[in-house]
Amino acid sequence: MDRIAAEILKQELLADADVLCLAVTAARQRIEEDFPGSLPACGYELNRTYNILEKGFERICEAFENHFEKRGAFHEKLIERMRLDLPGIRPAFLPADQVHAVRELKGFRHVFRHAYDLTLLPDRLIQLVQQAEQVADGYTRWIESFVEAIGPHLEEA
Fold first, then answer.
1. 90 near 5, Cβ under 8 Å?
2. Mean pLDDT, to the nearest integer, of 21-47?
3. Which of 112, 115, 132, 144 is surrounded by the fewest CB atoms within 10 Å?
């Protein structure tokens, strides 16, 4: 990867981080509000939160590995891929201590998108919002650490 491509990736990921913070903030607001539809509104923002994370993961795979096949259990495979340090290709992006929270958000997104009849539980949504906040709080640091780690290996454009 050259420096220009790395800068583009960094800026895309930082833009994702801004949207991630907005989604997580909105999820927190929705769970704290008491109006009809506040729980589904919180669920929507949590769904959006995972979508933002997954898009960033896909960006990284495409930039360093040229592709990522979207078939089978690709959502889980994508998380696993982000945990991997691939010597000579790229460092790990997803910190090991954040994998559980990301998986929880992925699991919720799956249920939220595919459930035919879903009852959202306030206590469970509160847990998910807390996990989303934890992920969002560290996401910019993940990006900065990742970019710092790839810096010495970048080619000139």
1. no
2. 96
3. 115
How many residues make up the chain in this entry? 157
- Give the 3-state DSSP-derived string for 13-78, with helices as H, strands as E and coil as C: HHHHHHHHHHHHHHHHHHHHCCCCCHHHHHHHHHHHHHHHHHHHHHHHHHHHHCCCCCCCCHHHHH
pLDDT in tens, 64-94: 987 777 777 888 999 999 999 999 899 999 9
In 3D space, the residue among 53, 1, 3 whose CA is nearest the CA of residue 23 turns out to be 53
Token reading at 122: 């306030």
Residues 67, 58: Cα–Cα separation, whole Å = 8
**106 membership: H or E segment, kind and range:** helix 99-114
Question: Is the full-model pTM beyond 0.85?
Answer: yes
